[in-house]
Fold this sequence. Notes:
Blueprint: E1 4-9, E2 13-17, E3 23-28, E4 31-34, E5 39-42, H1 46-63, E6 70-73, E7 78-82, E8 85-86, E9 89-96, H2 99-105, E10 112-122, E11 131-132, H3 134-139, H4 145-167, E12 171-178, E13 180-185, E14 190-195, E15 204-208, H5 218-221, H6 227-238, E16 254-255
Parallel strand pairs: 1-16
Antiparallel strand pairs: 1-2, 2-3, 3-7, 4-5, 6-7, 8-13, 9-10, 9-12, 10-11, 12-15, 13-14
Helix pairs in contact: 1-6
Amino acid sequence: MARRRQIYEGKAKVLFEGPEPGTLVQYFKDDATAFNNQKKGTITGKGVLNNRISEYLMLRLAEIGVPTHFIRRLNMREQLVREVEIIPIEVVVRNIAAGSLSKRFGIQDGTVLPRSIVEYYYKSDELGDPMVTEEHITAFGWASIQDLDEIMSLSLRVNDYLSGLFLGIGLKLVDFKLEFGRVYDDQTDEMTLVLADEISPDNCRLWDVKTNDRLDKDRFRRDMGGVEEAYQEVARRLGILPEGGPRDMPGPSTVQ
Ligand code: AIR
Ligand code: ASP
C-alpha cells in the first residue's frame, strides 16, 4: 500500500490525506479509551465493525436528507470522507438516563426521560470535554446561533430516525454523541454543515429491548466482558457482519 501522509490521530481513528483534494481517508483502529483516556485497551475487530456500522448508518441518514461526510468505504478498516472543518463541540442526545446524566442528576439508569435532551460538550482532552451551553459556544465563536439551530434540528432528526432503525432490530437507542463539520458548497458559495466522525457502539448506548443487555462501549468502560461480541451482535442485527467475522488487517503505513 502506498505510504500516505497522516493528518490527525485520534483515540479511535486516524485521518490520512485522501486521493483527491477535499477528501480524507478515515482509518478505524481497535484502540479503545474511556473516561478521557484514563482507561486504555483494545477491542479486537472493533475498527472493522465500526467502519461498517458507521458506513451503514451514515448511508441511511443520507437517504433521509441528512448531509454527512461519508463518501464510500474503501476496505475493511478505511472509508473515504469529505474533509471538513470540525466544529469543536460534541453533541449528545439522550432518550433514557444513563452514564454522566444519571450521575450528575442522581437519576436511576434506565429512566425514560420526559423528552429527548440535547447537550453540548467542548471537545478538549486537556479539559476533559466540559459541558457547555449555547452561550459559551456562540461567545467563544465555536459556532453561530444559525449553526446551532441547524445542529439541533439535524441531531433530533438523526435521533428520530436512528431510534426507529434500532428499535426495528430490538435495540433501544439510549443516547449517542455526534460531531459536525463545515464544508464549502460550490453550488451556493457558502459553508454548509455535515455530520462527521462516526456513529457506532463507541459513541451510542444500545440496550437490548427485552433484556436491557448493553451492546456498546459501556461493556469496556465498566469491565463487563463480552465487548467484542457486543459489537459483533450490533453488526449482525444490522445485517452487515463481515463474512468470516471481523478479520484483521495490517495497520496503516504512515509518513510522519
Ligand atoms: N460519548 C460522549 N463522549 C464520547 C462518547 N463516546 C457518548 C457515549 C454515550 C453518550 O455520548 O458513548 O453514548 C453520553 O455519554 P456520557 O458519558 O456523557 O453519559
Ligand atoms: N472516548 C472518550 C474517551 O476516551 C469518552 C468515552 O467514550 O468514555 O475518553
